[in-house]
Specification:
This protein has about 800 residues and is an alpha/beta fold. The chain has 33 helices and 20 strands.
């Protein structure tokens, strides 16, 4: 055994102990206020300990990035604790408030997490997109100094049930994926039992079909040595033929049962009988449980032998709960060692009582191990979080006296940026799941081209066939074209939105998709925001305003998604000039990374920054023309402004958001003679209005007198008898809360049921959001002279 192998085995034992003790302490030692199980996945951690020890302490380099299997989080944190990157207090507070998190988190943990994990499958897939982003950066003049690293996913075998993994595999193939490792912990046990027989063969075929190198790591060093003995081939054949459930059950029962079963099946066969008999029960159990993924020396050797950049899948056979009293039991996924089991196991691991948290307890030569740790390449450069300079945002102005849609205006704004030479434009990377042209990214792509690592000519240009799409693929391109998989869009936005932190090169990612399909990629959107990735996502077209397309393509609940999603500022402008102001602000907001103390003007955490969601429309609307004052610009950013200021005796305010603006304006004009001092409130972001209001309420409750949000100031002068009518091409709940701000009765209008085909006028009327419906509600629900038809 080499000294490095001895150190790896010592580290493996330390990580196994510390991870399991941390979980045991949280569940059996630390006081429980609620009296319920804390949890922690001891068995899932054990099955990964050899793989992670070999990976981090022998194979990785500082430029490599890893997404850790969620249930192996305790191993990761124990490792960081050994390296001085995690505190004892946080370890003792595992799964407690401000303690070590259940699953690795970039934003909640302190110990250099590369990719957050937790929602299974997503952490796996994002490594492929991280590698694609790395290639994108390296192809640019300003990113040529990026050192190529491997993007590694530690994968639970049950994660292979997640469909997004196969969507990512296909996208990786399209984009010539490289420098990506997926290491599958093939323990053949999931939450509810043992996985189906023969899964490995299907997995291997899938990866091979997409061009991956597949390495099966089935046997450990002890097993391979035994196979070389007389009778060893018979033992190997028995292992290969043993069903998963039988292997797990035998593992749990231990050496004596292994011996009986092997002798029953293989006894009286001469050499193989001798092979079995020459080993004690403990030695036999160690042999049979020495699968490739549970052998740190084997895993280190396998990793070292991969020297190319081809995407590689390691299918590492493991035993769930390896090395512990609960190894192999089918209930061990959520199971925990009992106090008695832990006490006996502590003796087995030779950890003295009172030294449970000591980093080097039971290590014969702690000084030598520390010297080894001091030379581990992966940890040599310390914490690997980078930053990049903030890009200046050029003035963005787009006004129009004609009818134009917000989607078209979005395309024009990007087109104007593409014509310039600003640093911001150079760092913009757009992406779309097969809807580039229909979301108005076409002009940007024609000028800035599509990204590929190798030049690809556009045959239509070559043959001089007229087309509005001039699609040339080049390493300098600034658009990444995706297939129709919204999960992939949000995973790529997430990876690109972490570029400044992962690679020290800032990107401004902009993704477009049809608004109803935000919901289809919602898990990946939430995942990207949870990691504090920075991007702009544009959902367009939206609502029943996309009338001819029918209910499946007409979004209803996306405004509520925008309001509820943490880390995402949601806007729905009605007019071109609003969109220009919001986008200019957004390009700065994406780059902010200051304190989270709220701005006392709005009570929004704008200095913290975040991502931005724009809900746009293809319906051209008449523009407001020259504005009488400049207050509207800040109001559009803060969430709302008075399009028509209410008078002192205001009886009705119409508050609208988005493309429904013309209907609200027309209704206000029709009722001017029947209701006094009517106001029209242009809401650009119910999300920011609501966030500022609730933050101000919290500040008031803490005794910060005078805390007043933007929406409170907008509504504070309205008389108490004033009625608010809110209207949106979306769910009415988006705006219905406005009445609670100052206690005004509210009439909320919106879309609550699936859409259908028809004209815009037909659908607006059917769902009660057109000008006449607004008037009908005012006539029926307020006191006053009857208003004539709109």
């Amino acid at each position: 055994m080499t000294s490095d192998t001895a150190h790896l085995k010592a580290l493996q034992d330390r990580l196994l102990w510390l991870s399991h003790w941390m979980i045991h302490h949280a569940n059996h030692t630390r006081p429980k206020e609620e009296g319920i199980k804390v949890g922690g996945h001891q068995a899932s951690s054990a099955s990964m300990v050899s793989i992670m020890t070999a990976l981090y302490f022998s194979a990785l380099r500082p430029e490599d990035r890893v997404a850790v299997k969620p249930h192996a989080s305790p191993i990761f944190h124990a490792m960081q604790y050994l390296m001085g990157n995690q505190t004892l207090d946080k370890m003792k507070n595992f799964r407690g408030f401000e303690g070590v998190q259940s699953y690795p988190s970039r934003t909640k943990d302190v110990d250099d997490v590369d990719y957050s994990t937790g929602s299974v499958g997503l952490g796996v897939a994002i490594t492929a997109f991280g590698s694609i982003v790395q290639d994108y950066l390296m192809a640019k003049d300003w990113g040529s100094d990026v050192s190529p690293g491997r993007h590694v996913a530690l994968v639970g075998d049950a994660e292979l049930d997640e469909g997004n993994i196969y969507e990512a595999l296909q996208e990786g193939w399209k984009n010539d994926l490289r420098n990506c490792w997926w290491i599958i912990d093939y323990n053949r046990q999931s939450l509810d039992g043992v996985v189906r027989e023969g899964l490995f063969a299907r997995v291997e075929k899938i990866f091979d079909a997409f061009g991956w190198n597949v390495i099966r790591v089935k046997y450990g060093a002890l097993q391979r040595a035994a196979f070389e003995e007389e009778g060893g081939s018979a033992l190997r054949d028995w292992i290969d033929a043993c069903p998963n459930q039988q292997y797990s059950a035998l593992t749990y029962q231990g050496g004596a049962v292994w011996r009986k079963r092997l002798m029953d099946d293989l006894g009286d066969q001469g050499p193989v009988t001798a092979l079995i008999e020459k080993r004690t029960d403990d030695e036999l159990a160690a042999l049979m449980e020495n699968l490739g993924g549970n052998c740190v020396a084997t895993m280190a050797e396998v990793f070292a032998n991969v020297t190319d950049d081809r995407p590689t899948c390691f299918l590492a056979y493991t035993i769930k709960g390896w090395g512990t009293p609960i190894a192999g039991h089918k209930d061990n996924h959520g199971g925990l060692m009992t106090k008695n089991q832990m006490a006996n196991w502590q003796q087995h691991m030779a950890v003295p009582e009172g030294q449970e948290w000591d980093k080097f307890a039971a290590v014969p030569d702690a000084e030598a191990l520390q010297k080894f740790l001091d030379t581990v390449p992966f940890f040599a450069k310390g914490r690997r979080r980078f930053t990049d300079a903030v890009l200046p945002v050029p003035d963005i102005a787009l006004s129009s006296d004609r009818e134009i849609s917000t989607q078209m205006a979005f395309g024009k704004i990007l087109d104007e940026l593409s014509k310039g030479d600003s640093d911001l434009a150079e760092r913009i990377v757009t992406m779309s799941p097969d809807v580039t042209g229909t979301t108005n990214l076409g002009p940007w792509v024609n000028r800035r081209k599509l990204f590929a690592r190798a030049e690809q000519a556009d045959a239509f240009i070559e043959h001089r066939i007229p087309s509005t799409a001039k699609w040339e693929f080049t390493p300098k391109g600034q658009h990444i074209e995706l297939g129709i998989a919204e999960m992939n869009l949000f995973l790529l936005l997430g990876a690109a939105g972490l570029s400044h932190s992962l690679f020290g090169k800032r990107l401004i990612p902009i993704g477009t998709l049809y608004d109803p399909f935000v919901a289809r990629g919602l898990d990946a959107l939430n995942y990207a925001c949870y990691q504090d990735a920075r991007f702009m996502v544009v959902g367009t077209p939206s609502g029943i305003t996309l009338a001819p397309e029918g209910g499946v393509h007409q979004s209803i609940g996306t405004p509520l998604i925008g309001m509820s999603q943490d880390g995402l500022a949601a806007f729905e402008p009605a007019f071109v000039d609003e969109l220009a102001v919001i986008m200019e602000w957004a390009f700065g907001y994406l780059q902010r990374d200051g304190s989270d103390d709220p701005d006392e003007r709005t009570w929004l955490r704008d200095e913290t920054g975040g991502s931005v969601y724009l809900r746009l429309s293809t319906n051209p609307v008449e523009q407001p023309g020259k504005r009488p004052d400049a207050d509207w610009q800040q109001g559009a950013i803060d969430g709302a402004y008075w399009l028509r200021r209410p008078g002192p005796n205001c009886e009705v305010v119409i508050a609208y958001q988005g493309v429904i603006a013309p209907e609200a304006i027309r209704a206000a004009g029709a009722m001017a003679d029947a209701r006094r001092d009517i106001g029209v409130l242009a809401v650009t972001s119910a999300d920011r209005l609501n966030a500022g209001w609730t933050a101000a309420q919290r500040a008031l409750a803490r005794g910060q007198h005078g805390a007043t949000s933007h929406v409170q100031r907008l509504l504070q002068d309205l008389p108490s008898h004033c009625r608010l009518l809110t209207v949106i091409d979306g769910h009415p709940t988006t705006l219905s809360w406005l009445g609670a701000v100052q206690g005004h009765q509210t009439i909320p209008l919106g879309v609550e049921h699936f859409g259908q085909t028809g004209t815009i006028g037909d659908l607006y009327h059917h769902y009660g959001i057109d000008a006449q419906s607004i008037i009908d509600k005012i006539n029926g629900l307020t006191i006053g002279r009857r208003i004539a038809a709109a």
